[in-house]
Amino acid sequence: MKTSDYNEMLREIIAEVKMTRFVIANRLNTSVTQLYWNIGKRLSSEKLEKGYGGKVVEQLSVDLKSEFPDAGGFSPRSLWDMKRFYEFYVEGEILPQAVAVSRSQILPQFVTVLPWGHNRLILSKIKDRQEALYYAEASVKMGWTRDLLLNFIKADAYHNSRELPKSHNFETTLPEYLQGQADEMLKSTYNLGFLGITHQIKERELERRIIDKIKLFLLELGEGFSFIGNQHRLTLGKREYFVDLLFFNRKIKSLIAIDLKIGAFEPEFVGKMNHYLGLLDDNLKMPDENPSIGIILCAEKDHIEVEIALRDLHKPIGVSEYQAIFPEKEIKRMIGRELNPKQASIKER
Question: SS3 of 97, please?
């Protein structure tokens, strides 16, 4: 067998194994979540509450552990979490009394495939149902670990992603079939809290930290992104230009150039990005690929100012903010809350 043929066979088998593992993991998570949902529903129907219902739950925990000694997850605390899990997602739902309502009609699929540890974390940190659904869906789509999920919750990614409008000119620079996909690809705010920045840094330092944690940055960018390189060289005659970060998005089949800016948005940024995109389209874009897209990532922006700056350009450019700098006092406060949640709760009242 030729080496190239063997490598192709190996690649296909590895892909098949990974896909099968993914399917099995999703099915397992779904089955476990459904079990815990049903137990929570049963406990809720008995209207058990901590206090008079505590002894019932404690006895139930003992009996379940005796019946299933090899299975975990039946501690009193876990049983209360199951009840709370059920009640959290059915709260506010109007359910017909005489008609059986399936779990899938209440609980979105991305919640069912989420590992139970992720669901418990969301329950412990989030009080609003829509906010919880946001973190559950993002965890599934982005493949967040539990630690990464906690990081995004602490950075308040839910509210930050909704407060700012998206700033781009995709409607006037991209084919109609691509405009919606490009808008979905772009975020108004990117959370870079995983970089561990606690003080002002320069642009090259920001770039270096992103490269050091490129896997986490890819997760934050979203689905379909593949990293090509940083300081990617472009040439025009004898002159050289360098794109901070260059990606390819498989979903929209476009090169994505990202320019990093430490400060606030300035109108001259778009001229530089427009030039980069022209060079990418002329020299790197394949004939079957869509136009290259630019993202200017800055510390802050004025939506109206961005709109005016992008108005007469012919290349697709989006401008987004990022959050990366966590004040040291805020970090200490969050750590304190994690180590001593009861005392922190008292101080916040």
Answer: coil
